[in-house]
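In this supplementary section we document a worked example of the pipeline. Step one takes a protein sequence of length 286 as its only input; no multiple sequence alignment statistics are reported here. Step two produces a three-dimensional model, which step three serialises into structure tokens for compact storage. The input and output of this example are shown verbatim.
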Amino acid sequence: MIAEMFSYNFIVRAFIVGTLVSLCASLLGVTLVLKRYSMIGDGLSHVGFGSLAIAAAAGVAPLEIAVPVVVLSAFFLLRISENSKINGDAAIAIISSTALAVGVLCASLTGMNTDLNSYLFGSILAVSNSDAIMCVALALVIIVMYFLLYNRIFAVTFDESFAKATGMKPAIYNTAIAVLTAMTIVIGMRIMGTLLISALIIFPAVTSMRLCKKFKSVIIASGILSVVCFFVGMIVSYNFDTPTGATVVVINCMAFVVFRLASFVISKLNGIKSVSKSDGKISQSE
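The serialised model returned by step three reads:
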């Protein structure tokens, strides 16, 4: 079945792009979750939908419009969250809902209703050769930039005050994180859809945190888990003829439940061991 599945060129393109997007989203997701910025991903995905709809209506290559628009929106959202009197969550809700409404209106007025579902929920058929090349290039840039800035990202994730005291400028690296997140969302929207792409950012990170406790181990586990869940999701989607994006999200949700149960069992076993050890010490002292 797997050999038959990968005999189709569009599935190969979708798998390559989806694997890279899953990896990028999982790396950035750990930092975004720890910094409580995870909702920025959801807001930017709605902005991406609006820009994609406008670009498609204008007959322009969607990614060429969506990338700069979403990157600028990421910078704008970050500045609002840090400096504005408007609460960060409120600012994200205002911008995301407005962008989503603009995209729906644009699609409706230009007769693009048939493509609306693929934009909202994703479609592996929507990834063309040119889209795949651009997505792969952007994904490689994101991965390289993340590892080049790893130490600084680690510093601003846990203690911005300490990072500032050491001479770093946290605002610059927070902006870099937001920009890399925006690029990840844009290249993932074609497969996952604008309503589901944020799940790739949140699920692998929070799932890995159930069992892993160190930053580096969480990142490694998150990356592996995200890629595996995407691969399993594609196989299930092909076998049962279900939407790829929704299937991948459900697989990620199931992985979260399994990891949560495993974490609960391990904590209980450790508690039993600690109690038995303490009992042993008491009996020996007696």
